[in-house]
Amino acid sequence: EKAGYKHFMAKEIAEQPVVIADALKRYVQNGALHLPAEVDFTAVDRLTMVACGTASYACHVAKYWFEQIAGLPVEIDIASEFRYREPPLSPKQWALFVSQSGETADTLAALRYTRDKVAKIVAVVNVPTSSIAREADLALPIMAGIEVGVASTKAFSCQLTTLALLALKAAQDRGRLTPESLAQHLSDLAAIPGLMNHALALSTPIAAIAEELAEAQDVLFLGRGAMFPLALEGALKLKEISYIHAEGYASGELKHGPIALIDNRVPVIVLAPRDPLFEKTVSNMQEVMARHGKVLLISDAQGVAEAGSDCWKTITMPQVSDAFAPILYAIPAQLLAYHTAIAKGTDVDQPRNLAKSVTVE
Ligand code: M6R
C-alpha cells in the first residue's frame, strides 16, 4: 500500500500534485468555479473558522485570502478554546470547520456549539462520511484520498486548495473580482500541481540539508503574510516527527523576543518567495545573521540571487503566484521534516505520543 515508498508520509507528500489537481477538477469546471449552489456568500458578513493543529494553520493561511481577495472578515479559533470562550456569533455569519478526519472531538463539539447560532455550518473535510461532515449543513470534501501518516501533509495542501476556491467564490459573490482577475487566480491555482512536481524534485538536496538540521536542538521558522502560518505548520511538522523543538514566528515579530534565542547553533528557516514583502524579510534575516544564526532561505531564483549569498543554506523554488505560494511552499516544509526525521531515525508514520485522529477532548 505504500506503493514503493518507505513511509506513508513520503507517499502522501509525493501524491500532492495529483490530489490537488483532483480538488481543482471537482470545484472548477469549464474555467468557472463549480461549488454547490448553497455556497453563496452574498449575505454573509463574517466567517468564523475553527480547527485543530495543521487544519487550523490551513485556516490561518485562508484568512489572508478571504480578507485580501474577498474583503470578508475572518475570525479563527482553535477548537479546544472556541466553545469555552463563548464567542458571540451573528445570525448572518457562517461557521466553517476544517478537519481531515472529521472526527476530532474538539472540532465536533465546536460545530455543535454553533448550531442555531449562525446562518450556515460548513465542513471542509477529507472523510465525507465523518461525524463533522454529517452534522454540518454542507460538507465540502478536499479530495486528498486516505491519509495514513500521522503527520498531515496532502490533507493540508488540499485543505488550502479547497479554501482558496471558497475564498474566490466569496470574492465573486461579493463583487470583488473582475472576470479577468478570477481567471488569473484560477490559472495560478491550476499551475500549482506542475510546480509541485518541480518542488518534489528538490527532495535530494533537502535531504542533504536535513542531515545537518538533525543536529539542532531548536529551529525557528519565519514567514510574513500568508507564509507566516506556513512557518507555524513547518515548525509543527518538524516537532511532530523529528522531536526537535521548533517554533514558527512572523518575521517581523523576531525582534520582540525570539531573537534572544539566536546563536550559531540555531537554524532559522525563512520561507520567503520574492514577493512585495521580501525586502522586509531580508532585513529580518540580516538581524539573524548578525547574531551568527544559521539561515536557510527558501525562495525562488530571484530571491536567492538577491539575498542568498550570506545564508547558511538556500533552497531554490519555482516561481509561483504571490497569493498561493503557501500551497507550494508546504512541500519543502514537509520534506525538511521528513528527511530530518529519517536522519534521526525516528518513527515517521507513527510518532510517539500522537494519534491520527484525536477523538477525546
Ligand atoms: O483530523 P483533523 O484535521 O481534525 O486533525 C487535526 C489535528 O489533530 C491534526 O492536524 C494534527 O495536528 C496533525 N498530526 C498534524 O500533522
TrEMBL record:
- Identify the catalytic residues: K356
Gene Ontology cellular component annotations, sorted alphabetically: cytosol
| Catalytic reaction annotation | D-fructose 6-phosphate + L-glutamine = D-glucosamine 6-phosphate + L-glutamate
Which keywords does this chain's UniProt record carry?
Aminotransferase, Cytoplasm, Glutamine amidotransferase, Repeat, Transferase
Share what the entry says about its subunit structure, partners included. Answer: Homodimer.
Q: What is this protein called?
A: Glutamine--fructose-6-phosphate aminotransferase [isomerizing]
Give the EC number(s) listed in the UniProt record.
2.6.1.16
Q: What is its main location?
A: cytoplasm
- Domain SIS, by residue range, is 37-176, 209-351
One GO term under biological process is: carbohydrate metabolic process
> What does the protein in this record do?
Catalyzes the first step in hexosamine metabolism, converting fructose-6P into glucosamine-6P using glutamine as a nitrogen source.
Q: Which domain of life is it from?
A: Bacteria
Question: What sort of enzyme, by top EC class, is this?
Answer: transferase
The places in or outside the cell where this protein is found are: Cytoplasm
Q: Name one GO molecular function term.
A: carbohydrate derivative binding
